[in-house]
Design brief:
Helix content: 25-40%
CATH topology of the largest domain: BirA Bifunctional Protein, domain 2
CATH class of the largest domain: Alpha Beta
Strand content: 25-35%
Largest sheet: 8 strands, mixed
Number of helices: 18
Number of domains: 3
CATH superfamily of the largest domain: Bira Bifunctional Protein, Domain 2
Oligomer: single chain
Shape: globular
Strand order of the largest sheet: 11-16-17-24-21-20-18-19
CATH architecture of the largest domain: 2-Layer Sandwich
Length: about 575
RNA sequence: GCCGAUGUAGUUUAGUGGUAAAACAGAUGCAUGGUAAGCAUCAGAUGACAGUUCAAUUCUGUCCUUCGGCACCA
């Protein structure tokens, strides 16, 4: 998802830089045509069509040089106001600009900007002189579909950034370097959290003991919160009869994304791509009364989606997804409170990890021009969208209306965070659904002894554990809080021979207190072990020598600190237990 | 799926149309009592398949992986 920035103080500069880029490309590739070149949150891009020719990363250096050359000439950037006819004549050689002009919302007011002999259609604003465009860098070149439609041909998209000062540019480039160091794929390898295998296949992550520890702790934490809100844990199989998804509507909408599992004995099953239909069948397994509602189920199981191969990346898009999913089956009157509860859970959970605030909320509504994309009664949709918007306003979420972002069966509130590189990553969600219960003919008995369909409110807190780990790893840069750390305490004996027995006793004592502890008894020097303990970002490293042994104290060094602190052993354990309990 | 790039030991990197180099990690031995790398020895690699060539890790092609995007995302 690209965020076209409304405007900020850098946007005229970036916009002018995009024009400069286009001019340089035109100089070097006279056959080039240009589509659009907007300012985005981080800089700008320009879509270029070069026919048979193409620009590679190496060419960017050449283009940058040409840009610098042009800018130095210091031409004034002049605004031109045109009517539609003049504009069509002016750009008569350029099929892309003609397309743009013919599709303009306000064809009465057409503006173009001219520098030197280069004119580009543009709303502006721009800086005054090309000399001001000095501190820029072209970052990458990639493909992009013409008009964003995969049926169309591909253009080349060149990305760049521009700043007012050299320092600001360098700072930005440094930020990009630093962000690379936080990349979850890099840290996942360094800290041994997960891996991939060619034999198992791409998009199928394998979690190591350390990665699994984090996953399990997260699961425990989220279930603990949800249980307080009345969620009960269920467990459903990874396979299902395809009919289940024909009824839910997933089979037709996502047929290409289903993995099929067949057997020689005649089984024709699919791997579950979502959890909801399975859970509906638990609801359907007996007669439900209005007195039972809301009924809330949650589970953390694998689900499988045959994603487009080009979309698979690290842990953020995979085929096998561990999904933390939950549903509330409730009456129409209960919907609002259910949504409020779920948003509160999300807020609690993300706040406790320091992630709340680093996000925006999308009120994801229907694409009103394509009703065929959705299931359910339009009247129900109207009601759902209204309710969701009301709740969102009451809770002060400042949600942005996003038409066309709804789920198959209903509108949703999506919470969108950012990864280390500033890319958006959508995780928690609350979704309203009048349709699914009707499709499965789920009912409950009302007070008047009639039958009524429940409403389903879908919610994901962690969403996919894989995607959540991307956010978590990059947020903490691998230095997890104590309660999540795979190894919480690392014991280093000063001397392996003299202190080992005491260290083993200490290790067992910590283990008895449910503290995850490692004992480094390798034949290496203390400094060597300390270095590794720090690079592995273990929260507490404790050194055990005569002083500690004889006085029953713990000397520990916290990750990131240089000094050592000594406390009584009992006190140390109490402190840790309390911190873990409080999710610190 | 589309555009562009990528692939050398477990990891990070070097290099070459003719014996593939190193650091860290690993194994072994020695050394080792206080907070970020002790020493020595050993073992370990050119993604797969074709083609060009006397000879390919190097050049070409196809596929696969991974990366940056696009499109998709229940």
């Amino acid at each position: 998802m690209i965020n076209i920035k409304e405007s900020n103080e850098l946007s005229p500069l970036n916009h002018s830089c995009a024009h400069l880029l286009a001019q340089a490309v035109k100089n070097l590739y006279p056959k080039a045509f240009f589509w659009v070149g907007p300012v985005i949150e981080e800089g700008f891009y320009y879509d270029v069509y070069l026919g048979d020719d193409s620009i590679t990363e190496e060419d960017l250096i050449k283009i940058e040089k040409e840009m610098k050359k042009i800018a130095k000439d210091n031409k004034k950037i002049i605004k031109l106001e045109l009517n539609k006819e003049d504009a069509l004549i002016m750009f008569k050689e350029d099929p892309y600009k003609i397309d743009l002009i013919n599709n303009l919302e306000n064809p009465e007011i057409i503006t173009a900007y001219k520098q030197d002999n280069f004119i580009d259609l543009c709303k502006g604003p721009h800086v005054e002189f090309t000399k001001e465009i000095k501190y820029f860098k072209l970052l990458k070149v990639s493909g992009a579909y013409f008009k964003g439609d995969s049926k169309n041909k591909m253009l080349q998209r060149i990305y760049g950034v521009c700043f007012k000062t050299e320092e600001a540019l360098n700072e930005h480039l440094k930020f990009l370097e630093e962000a690379k160091k936080r990349d979850h794929r890099k840290i996942g390898k360094e800290l041994d959290l997960f891996c991939f295998s060619d034999l198992v296949g791409p998009g199928l992550p394998l979690f190591t003991p350390k990665g699994t520890t984090i996953k399990d702790e997260l699961q425990r934490a989220v279930e603990e919160i949800c249980r307080k809100y009345g969620f009960e844990k269920v467990s459903t199989p990874h396979l299902a009869n395809i009919k289940l998804y024909e009824i839910s509507g997933h089979a037709s909408k996502f047929s290409e994304e289903l993995f099929h599992a067949t057997s020689q004995k005649g089984h024709e099953l699919v791997m579950k791509p979502v959890q909801c239909p399975h859970q509906t069948q638990i609801f359907a397994s007996k007669i439900r009364s209005y007195r039972d509602l809301p009924i809330r189920y949650m589970e953390s199981e694998k689900q499988y989606r045959a994603e487009m191969p080009g979309a698979v990346s690290g842990l953020s898009r995979v085929y096998a997804i561990t999904c933390e999913d939950g549903h509330s089956f409730c009456t129409v009157d209960q919907v609002k409170q259910e949504v409020i509860n779920m948003v509160n859970i999300i807020k609690d959970f993300y706040s406790s990890l320091g992630l709340w605030g680093n996000h925006w909320v999308s009120l994801s509504l229907r694409d009103y021009s394509s009703p065929e994309k959705y299931i359910g009664d339009p009247k129900d949709w109207d009601l759902c969208e209204k309710m969701l918007e009301e709740v969102s306003n009451e809770l002060g979420l400042e949600a942005k209306r996003c038409e066309g972002e709804a789920a198959l069966y209903g509108p949703k509130l999506d919470f969108i965070f950012k990864d280390a590189m500033g890319r958006e990553i959508q995780i928690p969600t609350v979704q309203l659904d009048f349709a699914t219960a009707k499709r499965f003919d789920l009912t409950y008995v009302t007070k008047e002894n009639t039958k009524e369909h429940p409403v389903m409110v879908h919610r994901a807190i962690l969403g996919s554990y894989e995607r959540f780990l991307v956010l978590l790893i990059e947020h903490f840069a691998g230095a997890f809080p104590l309660w999540l750390s795979p190894v919480q305490v690392n014991i280093i004996p000063v001397n392996n021979d003299y202190h080992l027995v005491y260290c083993i006793d200490l290790k067992n004592l910590l283990l008895d207190n449910n503290i995850r502890v490692a004992l480094d008894d390798r034949n290496e020097k203390l400094g060597y072990k300390m270095r590794e303990s720090q690079t592995q970002k273990i929260p507490y490293t404790i050194i055990v020598g005569d002083r500690e042994k004889d006085n029953n104290i713990i000397s520990y060094r916290k990750y990131g600190n240089e000094d050592t602190v000594s406390v009584d052993t009992d006190k140390f354990i109490d402190t840790l237990i309390t911190a873990i309990k409080n999710k610190q």
